Hints:
The protein has two domains: 2-95 and 174-187, no CATH class; 198-439, Purple Acid Phosphatase, chain A, domain 2, CATH 3.60.21.10. 41% of the residues lie in helices and 14% in strands. It has eleven helices and twelve strands. It has helices at residues 2-23, 30-54, 62-106, 152-159, 167-195, 233-246, 262-269, 296-305, 344-348, 367-372, 391-398; strands spanning 199-205, 218-222, 250-254, 281-284, 308-310, 314-320, 323-329, 357-360, 377-380, 404-408, 411-415, 433-439. The strands form two sheets. Strands 1-12-2-3-4-5 form a six-stranded mixed β-sheet. A six-stranded mixed β-sheet has the order 6-7-8-9-11-10. Strand 6 (314-320) and strand 7 form a beta hairpin. Helix 1 packs antiparallel against helix 2 (30-54) and helix 1 packs across helix 3. The longest helix is centred in the first third of the chain and has 45 residues, at 62-106. It is elongated, with a radius of gyration of 37 Å. The chain crosses the membrane at residues 6-22, 34-53, 65-93.
Amino acid sequence: MVVLVFVGLILLAHYYLWHRMVRSTTGPGRLRKALTWGMVGLFVLVVGTFVGTRMELGSGLAWPGYVWLALLFYLVLFFVVLEVPRAVAGVFLRRAERKRAAAPELTPKRKRAPEPELTPEPVAVLASTAAPVVEETAPVETVPPAEGAAPVEQVAEKIAPPAPLSRRLFLGRATAAVAGLGALSTVGYGITSALGDPVIERVKVTLPKLDPRLGGLRFAVVSDIHLGPLTGKAHTERIVRMINGLEADVVAIVGDLVDGSVAELGALARPLKNLESRYGAYFVTGNHEYFSPGGFAEWIEELGQLGVRPLRNERVEIRHQGAVLDLAGVNDLNGTSQGDGPDFGKALGNRDTSRSTVLLAHQPVQVGEAARHGVDLQLSGHTHGGQMAPFSLVVGLQQPVVSGLATVDGVQVYVTRGAGFWGPPVRVGAPPEVTMLELA
């Protein structure tokens, strides 16, 4: 059902673009047919990209397919926004055409001045016996057209001024030009943002019952790295380098590390073994770990070999300056369908409730259950901050927090925008981030 809905939406978006970019900008003929088939090809490209990346058939279609998907989204967005100005402009142009058509009838006709009457001059009448006078005229020579010259009718057609552009074509081409320029500029900026260095966000969180000795404990929080067909090993190396530069006490990787199997992406994850922190690096599953063709279990094992400890519905004690902090982690909600869902009771039960607890949970929506178990702070990802504005408005309908720090049901929740991207290598209004979070 999800696949059918997705394909239906993509098909509808391409039809709308065909209507606005092809039918409204061209007349019947070869050009319209060629552009129509081009639009069909782009639809097939998008579907093929999703099928190919999910089945790990190679990354040949990934770049053009995902970039076109971003352009498709912003073209549709710009055209929808321009529908009202386009309709208003059409009304004014129709009125102008009516005025021009009515102008000759409204202008009074000028009376022509009477032509003077000509009085015939007297003509001498010759005698009937006189011979008629015949004047000889020079014969008129007809010059044949030069060999290869175009007939007069064709020359006249070439000299004739072109027909004025119709209102429909003018509005269609003007709207397409504005939408195309807007979409290209937006996607170009978004690619630069997505492929650039993540932003370092520094956040201080005050926990009322935190042991004063734990004040200053620092977490490097990163999520949604999304190792996949569009990222290389350098993407992981850069994130590891940035995290190590923060000199954090704890590294928290809050899900959606990969978009593929260990066989395909294992080499891209290898730099994670170089992560540096005082008390270790920890990981919880995100929804994309459960989409892996090789299964989520192989990534749990792989990360363990890289020195990153998965917290699978469990908790550990972080001892710092003689005080203890409980660090817990729960599996993602998508693991439920594979018998690997979150278990808050297992992760948070039978603990000393006088100690502060930090919970790693991929989706912010899991905060409701966290509140029932007395969690002080939840660290999450999943949302990408919307990734491509204005998707943040849609994400806000699903999750209680889109990005940043907020309080939900008495629990403070910090949601990172993530250090990577999913699908199109584009981020608009939500730059990638690595967070340095300090407890107080």
